[in-house]
């Protein structure tokens, strides 16, 4: 349960330098959050594409979050630049901008992210919780949407994707009905230059790859955080 977890009391209490040592002096905080990141495929895919954007995965399972942490550590070592330190300073080594925490994102998101600090929030292939008595366990719900709107800056994007049609309808309708989000099409996001993100959302995660192997369908739904 959550009792064994230590949570920061507020975003100010998080020492991001431990997560992103190469950015320690920058005073930056994460801008992308992958909720239920699983084995970290999205973070690993996006890290080199947006080397200046700090990204954080949140994963509730101990072994899985540890696996992601080890995976990032290994990538940081193996991709260290061989060239001069001056070059390393202007071009930070790859994967310095990604990290992960073991956390229950349904309870503690605002402990990690300050108001309006995120530009992207990802919900990729979340657990479907099929039975209706378990729907309250779903990661998208009216209460949680208020928290997601709080941590996202106006203009920020919520990306959702699933292979479960019923869950797609659920996430889509809840987000559509929430006053601080408006639907934004895949085409518009691609026109805005977010094509690489959309591609990663479709194909980079372990769950997404599994759906492909099984020839399953994927439903994408994206929303923009708007000003009231
Ligand atoms: N997004 C990954 C992908 O596409 O491969 C993982 C998808 S997996 C079906 C759902 C993940 O969400 C699991 O790793 C699970 O442990 C995690 N999870 C479920 N509830 C969570 C919560 N409240 N906070 C953080 N992670 C959670």
Automatic annotation (TrEMBL):
<keyword id="KW-0819">tRNA processing</keyword>
<dbReference type="InterPro" id="IPR029063">
    <property type="entry name" value="SAM-dependent_MTases_sf"/>
</dbReference>
<comment type="pathway">
    <text>tRNA modification; N(7)-methylguanine-tRNA biosynthesis.</text>
</comment>
<keyword id="KW-0489">Methyltransferase</keyword>
<feature type="active site">
    <location>
        <position position="127"/>
    </location>
</feature>
<protein>
    <recommendedName>
        <fullName>tRNA (guanine-N(7)-)-methyltransferase</fullName>
        <ecNumber>2.1.1.33</ecNumber>
    </recommendedName>
</protein>
<dbReference type="GO" id="GO:0000049">
    <property type="term" value="F:tRNA binding"/>
</dbReference>
<dbReference type="Pfam" id="PF02390">
    <property type="entry name" value="Methyltransf_4"/>
</dbReference>
<feature type="binding site">
    <location>
        <begin position="104"/>
        <end position="105"/>
    </location>
    <ligand>
        <name>S-adenosyl-L-methionine</name>
    </ligand>
</feature>
<feature type="binding site">
    <location>
        <position position="36"/>
    </location>
    <ligand>
        <name>S-adenosyl-L-methionine</name>
    </ligand>
</feature>
<dbReference type="InterPro" id="IPR003358">
    <property type="entry name" value="tRNA_(Gua-N-7)_MeTrfase_Trmb"/>
</dbReference>
<feature type="binding site">
    <location>
        <position position="124"/>
    </location>
    <ligand>
        <name>S-adenosyl-L-methionine</name>
    </ligand>
</feature>
<feature type="binding site">
    <location>
        <begin position="59"/>
        <end position="60"/>
    </location>
    <ligand>
        <name>S-adenosyl-L-methionine</name>
    </ligand>
</feature>
<dbReference type="GO" id="GO:0005634">
    <property type="term" value="C:nucleus"/>
</dbReference>
<keyword id="KW-0808">Transferase</keyword>
<dbReference type="GO" id="GO:0043527">
    <property type="term" value="C:tRNA methyltransferase complex"/>
</dbReference>
<comment type="similarity">
    <text>Belongs to the class I-like SAM-binding methyltransferase superfamily. TrmB family.</text>
</comment>
<keyword id="KW-0820">tRNA-binding</keyword>
<dbReference type="InterPro" id="IPR025763">
    <property type="entry name" value="Trm8_euk"/>
</dbReference>
<keyword id="KW-0694">RNA-binding</keyword>
<keyword id="KW-0949">S-adenosyl-L-methionine</keyword>
<keyword id="KW-0539">Nucleus</keyword>
<comment type="subunit">
    <text>Forms a complex with TRM82.</text>
</comment>
<dbReference type="GO" id="GO:0008176">
    <property type="term" value="F:tRNA (guanine(46)-N7)-methyltransferase activity"/>
</dbReference>
<comment type="function">
    <text>Catalyzes the formation of N(7)-methylguanine at position 46 (m7G46) in tRNA.</text>
</comment>
<feature type="binding site">
    <location>
        <begin position="205"/>
        <end position="207"/>
    </location>
    <ligand>
        <name>S-adenosyl-L-methionine</name>
    </ligand>
</feature>
